[in-house]
Amino acid sequence: MNEAKGKRLEVKVRMKDRFFVFPLPLFLFPFAFFGPQSVLDPAGPQAGRISGLWWLMFYVCLGVFLAVALSVLVAIFRRRKDPETSSDEPDREPAPERERRMTRVVVSAIGLTVVILSVFLFFSYTTGRSLYSQADAEALSIKITGQQWWWNVEYDLEPASDIVHTANEIHIPVGRPVKFRLTSTDVIHSFWVPNLNGKKDLIPGHEIVLTFQADRAGEYRGQCAEF
User: Fold this and answer.
1) What is the mean pLDDT of each run of 10 residues along the chain (227 residues)?
2) Are 146 and 154 in contact (CB under 8 A)?
3) DSSP label at residue 149
4) Chain-centre distance of CA 24, in angstroms?
């Protein structure tokens, strides 16, 4: 008697925990769309292209998910018209018409999958090309050297006496392309400002160029995404 009562109490506690835990991701989900460190809140053309690609994949995958979920629900709740085939026994010899219909559905699903993946491949390629084709001779040049555990920032200005060094803080003009020359002195770092562009690895002994532009004034957080 006490054991059964304890089990009922345990089930009630679990259901209560589920009730409060499940809505939490839904409550926090909208906060991912804006902020000083969000890919989905672009502040420049490069980040805008990355965000556009993300939204394309999001809506397509959402449509696929809903279609699959709907198909599963239809398969679960559909009642067969023929009472002889309404049992739970597996169909070892399905009717030819039903087998042809299932074949058409599977072939159509495979074809649609190939089309979706081809669309993703095309837009991923064009987005990557657009990120690397925005070189500008008038871009402001800034050298960033990754070190443990800070960024060494050097503004390449003319004459050499005007060169400025800062640490962990970068000031750039609005509406002007900025060319970052990225390198490292010790280990592999990963420079990432989500609101302005994608992440880029810093390899010791190699200089990598990353270009982006801020179209609106603000404070945008960056980080080393490697550690």
Assistant:
1) 49 44 52 73 93 95 94 78 58 76 90 96 93 76 92 87 89 93 93 93 92 92 85
2) no
3) T
4) 20
